[in-house]
Amino acid sequence: MSAKQNGVPLLDVNRDNAPHREEFIDALTEVLDSGRFLFGPDVAELECELAGYCQVPNVVGCASGSDALLLALMALGIGAGDEVIVPSFTFFASVSCITRLGATPVFADILPGTFNVDPESVASLITEKTKAIIPVHLFGQCAQIDRICQIAGEHDIPVVEDAAQAIGAAYHSRPAGSWGTIGCFSFYPTKNLGGMGDGGMMTTNDAGIADRLRLIAGHGMRPRYYHQVIGINSRLDTFQAAVLRVKLRHLGDAIESRAAIADRYDRLLKDHGLVGGAELTLPQRDKHAFHVWNQYALRIGGGRRDEMRSFLAERNIGSEIYYPVPMHEQECFANTPFRHNGLAETERASKEVLNLPIFPSLTEMEQVRVVEAIGSFYSKAARAAA
Ligand SMILES: *Cc1c(COP(=O)(O)O)cnc(C)c1O
């Protein structure tokens, strides 16, 4: 067999979608025939279904996860002179929503085991200027959101959960997005509930905030051509909503498959004797969290992460680095004021993290190939050292 046939993709969207092809075509045809490409019935139906799924009374669709975060901070009135606490070890959009509004990001460090934001780091950064806290539920596992909400509550600071990677996740059995003032979700195709294009949503327990989010997402216009506030245009379109309703029906199964894949990686890596030393660390599971495994994130120590990634790439085995450059080191923020009090774990994670292929239709054979390749990386190194 050629190397290509032995390869393993990081993600195969077509393979995941293939079993539901007929359902997608039926749903999309209905939208096409309705001619209602915006504000079609699927949008309201999806919002209603997701409210049930996330156990929140209010869901507002929007154009992307990035917009969800921006709209959330706009609805909270964040602006110049305000500080917002956020991890630096995250995707750009968790931070750009802050700087776009002229507010100052304040970067909290992460916990080394889960890569999630450290609540005590958050607590140490609070000042009278702190106007919001954005915990990120990274890789599909909730941050310690109970503790974060407690800290925020003591200071009366709103919490905006960046749950872009964590739909269906929970902490102490309570869903991601139902803990904070506002929850922000993404339907980007690689997310656990991925559309066929861009999309996002916001969740909130507060009907007044939901109304404000809707107003701001619709040009701040109410009634038509009367603009109460300077809003933006951010809508979830009907085609995406129709696709997402199909996908939502299968989301429970998809999460089960991802969890089984994560368990199998753990077992295979242990069986290969690859775990225990300082070289490779399995993703840590918080016992209070229901993890939905958007990513399976290893830590590769000894300064060999990039070498490992190249070794896998030569064998056509996909891997990715989420994230190679923390936000406080990004070029685009070089002239932006921000603050932190030490980000040692963030910087170490950016040099050690390596994400393996994980998607619902990934096969056991493919996982075996991934783990065997990792094993041969270390045995080759052992031979070279001997
Ligand atoms: C994907 C993602 C976003 C942004 O979502 P988009 O829909 O791509 O705009 C925000 N935060 C995190 C942590 C993400 O992973």
Automatic annotation (TrEMBL):
InterPro entries: DegT/StrS_aminotransferase (IPR000653), PyrdxlP-dep_Trfase (IPR015424), PyrdxlP-dep_Trfase_major (IPR015421), PyrdxlP-dep_Trfase_small (IPR015422). One of its GO terms (biological process) is polysaccharide biosynthetic process. Pfam families: DegT_DnrJ_EryC1. Its EC number is 2.6.1.90. SUPFAM superfamilies: PLP-dependent transferases (SSF53383). It is an enzyme of class 2 (transferase). GO terms for molecular function: pyridoxal phosphate binding; transaminase activity. The modification N6-(pyridoxal phosphate)lysine is found at K191. It comes from the Bacteria. CDD domains: AHBA_syn. The active site is at K191 (proton acceptor). Keywords: Aminotransferase, Pyridoxal phosphate, Transferase. PANTHER family: 3-OXO-GLUCOSE-6-PHOSPHATE:GLUTAMATE AMINOTRANSFERASE (PTHR30244:SF36), TRANSAMINASE (PTHR30244). Belongs to the DegT/DnrJ/EryC1 family. This is Aminotransferase.
